[in-house]
């Protein structure tokens, strides 16, 4: 029975790909929003092409990148917030 | 007594079912192998002519199926059904009980229009996402969605492929289906979702704060959704009226498909690539196998055996049809069951039996047997496959507990309904 189940599941692989796509769409609407940032191989490291690509599978790299990007995102969101506040105060001062 | 020709045709039929149900090859290839063997044997032994082989295939069924597939592929791409699922989740307000019933209801509604496979991928994705966000166990939602999707559309001509086959063979139109079976389907929705709720109640989790979102958030073009909604309404209206214009449902389905492609901005080529050719070739091949069985007199013998068993009593004949077709649908494709049973039931015409009684029993049997175990239908296997993506391995037995329980409840209720609707 396990073999039969495995065979059925294997044959449904294409449908499962469609399931993943569908789930991504629902995640975009209901889940925490995400943005994708692509990172290029830095200049001077051209001979490390494979090692660079392997980084995307390395857990410690992903954690570090997530933390570093998190800091950058927060910094930029704060800057946007402050800019909006400034504009608001400027507008109210102009009115006065 | 069966002669050697009959035995060969029974052998071809059983071989096809064996190949298809054990997944040794795809459904379509199994049916085409059977059709090829049947044709070679029939032609060499002079049982039928090449022209007769072509006439075994009911092209109206194929046209109806393709028309429905194209129409609802276009509608599905608009995001209309996704919005429906998102609203259902939003209005459950984090209450797992309301969420459970909403998922059950939307599953059944969506499967009125979409193929079971497309419907389960959509609903499972919605249920899987909300279950992860709310930290709920996804199993109750996935299994219930699969069972409700199998049930949804039992009372409509276009609700399932087996219904289209039965509808075209019996001559029952869209209104006849609703007239004979709609009340039964509504009662079955309530009964099945309640049974599943009682079964899964301890696993549904507690009320939590739901995410706030706009169901229309991912829709880039609202006009496309409105157009898709218009097509569904038009499709249903035309299906209610087509008898008056002396045209068949296949013409209406195809006209709607053309209109959908015309007014909704979609790539027609990619829509055509999404047509389920696997099912179409399976039906085409199986028509030839069944045609061979009919030609050598096997189906007539089965029909007479059913009449003898029932002593000409329509209630017993209907019960035999309902339970045997449901039982067979648990193990083999319900499309194959519908294709085999339609000529058998058709031969009982003119023998004083209420044919609507028998056709209704066949519709219920072929539909209700499709979600008893993971091998009963693609929708069940896909629910398990999707759960695997959520890192949950649902066993064959665990799925079957819910599947067999609801199938038995549904069949018992269907028996009761048939007695009430058509008498003893």
Any descriptors?
heterodimer; A: 96 residues; mainly alpha; 2 domains; 4 helices; flat; B: 424 residues; 20 helices; 74% helix; 0% strand
Query: Based on helices, strands and strand pairing, what is the structural class of chain B?
Result: mainly alpha
Helix fraction of chain B, binned, reads over 70%
- How many domains of chain B? 1
Tell me the number of helical segments of chain A per DSSP (H or I, 4 or more residues long): 4
* Run of helices and strands of chain A: HHHH
**Helix run count of chain B:** 20
Span of the ends, CA to CA of chain A: 79 Å
Inertia-based shape of chain B: globular
List segments of chain A where confidence is low: pLDDT < 50 over at least 5 consecutive residues.
Answer: none
Helix content of chain A: over 70%
The average pLDDT value of chain A, as a whole number, equals: 85
Strand fraction band of chain A? under 5%
| Count of beta strands of chain B | 0
- Envelope shape of chain A: flat
Q: Report the sheet with the most strands of chain A, covering strand number, pairing sense and barrel closure.
A: none
* Number of E-state strands of chain A: 0
Percentage of residues in DSSP E strands of chain B: under 5%
Main structural class of chain A: mainly alpha
Structural account:
The complex is a heterodimer of chains A (96) and B (424). Chain A has 96 residues and is mostly helical. Chain A is built from four helices and no strands. The longest helix of chain A is centred in the last third of the chain and has 37 residues, at 59-95. In chain B, helix 10 (174-200) packs across helix 20 (396-422). Helices cover 74% and strands 0% of the residues of chain B. Chain B is an all-alpha fold and 424 residues long. Chain B contains 20 helices and no strands. Chain B has one domain (58-274, 297-422). The A-B interface holds A 1, 4-5, 7-9, 11-12, 15-16, 18-20, 22-23, 25-31 and B 22-23, 26, 82, 85-86, 89, 117, 121-122, 124-126, 128-130, 132-133, 211, 213-215, 217-218, 374-375, 378, 381-382, 384-386, 388-389, 396.
